[in-house]
Recover the amino acids of this structure.
């Protein structure tokens, strides 16, 4: 019997997102279950196995029709699908792929959630049609995922694609969450843009619509769209840091496309324009051909990418 | 019949290096033929096919005993073993793997020479025992090769691992060969170290054994070893540029080991010490575990890596 279906699971700190897909990538059904982190998260995998097996029964599927289960987790995952530890799930070492295979009798693959989301965007999102992409998630932090020739670049210590911690400046006062100083994340995440804007506002008393109101990534880019000169300066600074860093990333990974996602990317095309301006200036010759796209799958990128790992 | 042998070929602008290996990686025989670049390099592949077929005959090998032929070339190579063009070989588009398979009846794989050398150092050189390495070649330029889980990161435009063109400074007067400004290569290649030393010497008239003599990467590191303070300042600058850049590379590729080769690396362990000092300062937490090693295979890295592509 031909394989027709595949499950994509994205385990987060509070909920587990689940998707049933066709092997062509059509999302047939999407649902969530809570992530039970008590007792070192001992119930998480049994809960996932249970919801998958119930769905198979409910839909009347034959196991031979199912390519397997792909799972993304917030932590490092090695090639064998083992997790050395995942703080947000309260996990120590877990043999994720092995345990799930035993519980379900299905083939299982596992990966880090940021890398898996990149794979999802490559399959059905902003990088569709490409085989080598760099996904950049501009949220509270800056996450990344590198796909080379269709395969996730995991790295030796699970830090492949941790581009938020590239050192980009000696010119910030405080430390990054990682303990270093001057990381990309400190100046281009949502928090980082707020920091840049507040620093610029303090520098002098040039008028700006940002003064007196709430300052965050959204208000900054709204002000840019409204023609606010001070906000534009902040956007240039953001673009220079991120564009230059992505030019460095291109010297390592050389993607076809950079896919930009996360909350900050909701500002739209204008974000890409500021990044591309500086990327074009600093990128190596052949890498200048790379294109830039907004992420398309939002919170579903994880389940798409998880499913794709099996195919 | 079991596969016992494999050929590794490294095509350079003037000579083609050839190696016959056992599949375990023992180099049985090594020889060279000239690279005939006339007529758009039309003779290069027939010459290689010819020397391989002759060696098979001379040794009395059966084709079934041979795993195949791996070939490194100075230019981009895609996953199908096609070369869009290679200036030093006077090649336009060449279907390298396809043509060689037809000419020899053997399985053929091809890759970019810098990436292939990295694979060689991973197999039998400074990165032996590892699966994820970054190879840095400090010669006239700065070359790089990234191996992730045993596979070369080629990139979409053949620029994977072109780490010499990471932008590291706005503080150099001249342009890089690539057309950009402030590339890693401009300050950490052999030429780059000479540039840094001459710039430092001009800054003031502090005494140094480098004054009056020849200034190059070798004399600089000889002076460092002799305790010359000015030369030490140059080495610190070199270490800061390279260590910081490799910390950025680690945020993308996260290798187990950085293998440092090329002419500059002949200065030995002292090179690694200066690089590691700044790498430790800027690397992301888990990436600090990466180790540093000197390359071991010298000019043979290419034939080792070429052979390894088949195995």
């Amino acid at each position: 019997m031909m394989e027709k279906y595949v499950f994509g699971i994205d385990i987060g700190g509070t909920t587990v997102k689940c998707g049933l897909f066709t092997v062509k990538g059509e999302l047939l059904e999407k649902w969530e279950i809570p992530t039970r982190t008590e007792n070192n998260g001992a119930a998480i995998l049994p809960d996932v196995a249970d919801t998958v097996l119930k769905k198979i029964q409910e839909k009347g599927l034959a196991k031979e029709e199912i390519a397997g289960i792909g799972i993304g987790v917030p932590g490092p995952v090695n090639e064998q699908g083992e997790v050395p530890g995942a703080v947000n799930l309260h996990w120590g070492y877990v043999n994720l792929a092995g345990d799930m295979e035993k519980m379900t009798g299905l083939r299982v693959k596992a990966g880090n959630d940021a890398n898996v989301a990149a794979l999802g965007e490559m399959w059905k999102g902003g990088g569709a049609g490409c085989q080598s992409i760099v996904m950049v998630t501009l949220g509270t932090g800056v996450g990344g995922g590198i796909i080379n020739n269709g395969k996730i670049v995991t790295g030796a210590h699970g830090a492949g694609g941790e581009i938020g911690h590239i050192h980009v400046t000696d010119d910030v006062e405080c430390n990054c969450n990682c303990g270093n100083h001057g990381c990309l994340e400190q100046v281009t995440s949502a928090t980082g843009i707020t920091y840049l804007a507040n620093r610029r506002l303090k520098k002098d008393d040039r008028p700006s619509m940002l003064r007196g109101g709430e300052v965050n990534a959204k208000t900054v880019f709204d002000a840019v769209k409204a023609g606010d000169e001070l906000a534009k300066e902040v956007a240039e600074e953001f673009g220079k840091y991120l564009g230059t860093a992505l030019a460095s990333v291109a010297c390592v990974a050389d993607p076809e496309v950079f896919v930009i996602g996360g909350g900050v990317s909701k500002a739209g095309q204008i974000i890409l324009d500021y990044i591309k301006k500086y990327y074009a200036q600093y990128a190596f010759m052949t890498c200048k051909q790379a294109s830039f796209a907004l992420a398309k799958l939002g919170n579903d990128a994880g389940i798409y990418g998880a499913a794709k790992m099996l195919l």
